[in-house]
Design a protein that fits this description.
Blueprint: H1 2-8, H2 12-24, H3 33-43, H4 50-92, E1 95-99, H5 107-115, E2 120-135, E3 138-147, H6 156-159, E4 162-165, E5 175-179, H7 180-186, E6 193-198, E7 203-204, E8 207-208, E9 211-221, H8 226-231, E10 232-236, H9 237-243, E11 252-257, H10 263-274, E12 278-282, H11 283-286, H12 288-326, H13 328-336, H14 341-372, H15 374-381, H16 388-391, H17 402-428, H18 432-438
Parallel strand pairs: 3-10, 5-9
Antiparallel strand pairs: 1-11, 1-12, 2-3, 2-6, 2-11, 4-9, 5-10, 6-9, 7-8
Helix pairs in contact: 3-14, 4-12, 4-14, 4-17, 12-14, 12-17, 13-18, 14-17
Length: 439
């Protein structure tokens, strides 16, 4: 008996004392101290049970990797969504007003009325049109936006991202602001000349003649989204009206609100403030497919990566089954000394729970630390691996969601506990006589 208990790493005197106390008192609570002692000793490496400890170690590592991967991947996907939304919405506005019955020739008064609506942060009337930009070094299609100089500070995605040149005196001359990647592709710098061409020029007896005009590059901006930095150009509103044959009107009025998710609630107040028929669309409608795809991909990744945790918990099952087989003699002796089936079951439940908790804790710490330092890690280890022309953004964004982290941790712990049920049940049903005879 002493030899068997010595194999378990448990003090014979201590176990006898606790078992006698347990038999003497029917009110001994579950998960008593001696149960934790036995469970802890079973997890320690022994010459005979070294294989069990190795399986337990790999179970801990598997759960840690799964939890850390879930935290990192979901944080990166959250960062992508937030970063793209902030940049796309920051440039394009939250609500777009278009004319229905007549053109926006009254855009000044209309903008003032819309800006007074509670919850509206800024209103920017603009002219939009497509053109072809060319220089001696190349050419590219561009989306031209005509805005007033006073409205540029309302678009911080542009006014706060000037890399060279200046926007001062934007309305006074025939200047233009280009995205950085567009300027690089054309070989232009601030102060150079760029030529814009559009098929919608002056009307003649022979039809509409194309319009071509040279502009000075007053500023170069970098929004951080490749599609925008490659195709966007801004010019003074009056110049854009002349270039695109607008007779004192604008093509769209963009409205920025305080809460981007409250666009549905803003429709009625905006329509009432307009005092004329207008067509309102919002960022959710214009980007529904894009953000919907991101949400689907995020949910699918959560399910797929959970498989890593599930595979790790299967290692817990195999490890505990090996442990039960290895400790069958010890279990039989403990039963003859007065340990109940519930006691045996709880010992192995504690074993599996410790593996799950330790693995989850390591994964949580590792995932959080990696996520918080993901940009320095990227710059240090993979400085050229992130191509912004493919992935839209210049750096890997990451944004941890506390609720998601809690769900990941709880899911991992519950899966670990579920994996211990069958091996623990088998240990509790072990026949002491058969175990001693054949153990």
């Amino acid at each position: 008996m002493a030899l068997a208990l010595g194999k378990a790493g448990v003090s014979l005197k201590g176990v006898l004392t606790r078992l006698k106390n347990a038999r003497a008192s029917a009110s001994t609570p579950p998960f008593a101290g001696f149960e934790w002692i036995i469970a802890g000793r079973y997890l320690r490496a022994r010459r005979r049970g070294g294989g069990v400890s190795v399986v337990a170690l790999f179970s801990v590592l598997g759960i840690a990797v799964g939890v850390a991967t879930l935290i990192i991947v979901l944080s990166v996907m959250n960062g992508f969504r937030s970063e793209l939304r902030s940049k796309i919405i920051g440039l394009n506005g939250h609500v777009f007003a278009a004319p229905i019955d007549r053109l926006f020739t009254d855009y000044v008064d209309l903008s003032d009325r819309l800006e007074k609506v509670a919850g509206v942060r800024a209103v920017v009337p603009m002219v939009q049109g497509q053109a072809f930009a060319s220089s001696p070094y190349g050419g590219s299609g561009v989306l031209v936006r005509g805005v007033r100089e006073s409205d540029l500070p309302k678009i911080p995605a542009v006014s706060g991202a000037i890399k060279s040149g200046t926007l001062e005196g934007f309305d006074s001359g025939e200047g233009i602001a280009l995205g950085k990647r567009l300027a690089d592709s054309l070989g232009l710098q601030a102060g150079d000349q760029v030529t814009l061409s559009t098929p919608k020029g002056a009307s003649t007896p022979f039809g509409t003649a194309p319009r071509t005009k040279a502009y000075t590059v007053k500023a170069i901006f970098e929004i951080g989204v490749t599609d925008f930095d490659t195709t966007m150009a801004f010019m003074p509103l009056a110049e854009a009206q002349a270039f695109f044959n607008r007779d004192g009107d604008v093509s769209v009025i963009e409205i920025y609100i305080d809460n981007a998710d409250a666009v549905g609630e803003m429709r009625e107040p905006l329509e009432m403030a307009a005092e004329r028929p207008i067509l309102l669309t919002d960022w959710r409608q214009t980007n529904r497919t894009f953000f919907g795809a991101l949400e689907v991909e995020r949910n699918v990744m959560f399910l797929i990566l959970n498989l890593i945790v599930i595979v790790a918990t299967l290692n817990i099952i195999s490890g505990l089954i090996l442990l039960v087989r290895d400790k069958s003699s010890d279990i039989a002796i403990l039963r003859t000394m007065g340990a109940t089936p519930g006691t045996i079951m709880r010992v192995f439940l504690i074993n599996g729970a410790l593996i799950g908790l330790v693995g989850t804790a390591i994964g949580l710490i590792g995932g959080v630390l990696f996520t918080l330092n993901i940009k320095p890690i990227q710059r240090t280890l993979f400085p050229t691996a992130w191509d912004p022309t493919v992935r839209f953004l210049a750096e890997i964004p990451a944004e941890m969601n506390t609720n998601e982290v809690v769900i990941i941790v709880v899911t991992s712990v519950l899966l670990s506990l579920a994996a211990t049920l069958y091996p623990s049940w088998r240990a509790a049903r072990l026949d002491p006589v058969q175990a001693l005879r054949y153990g």
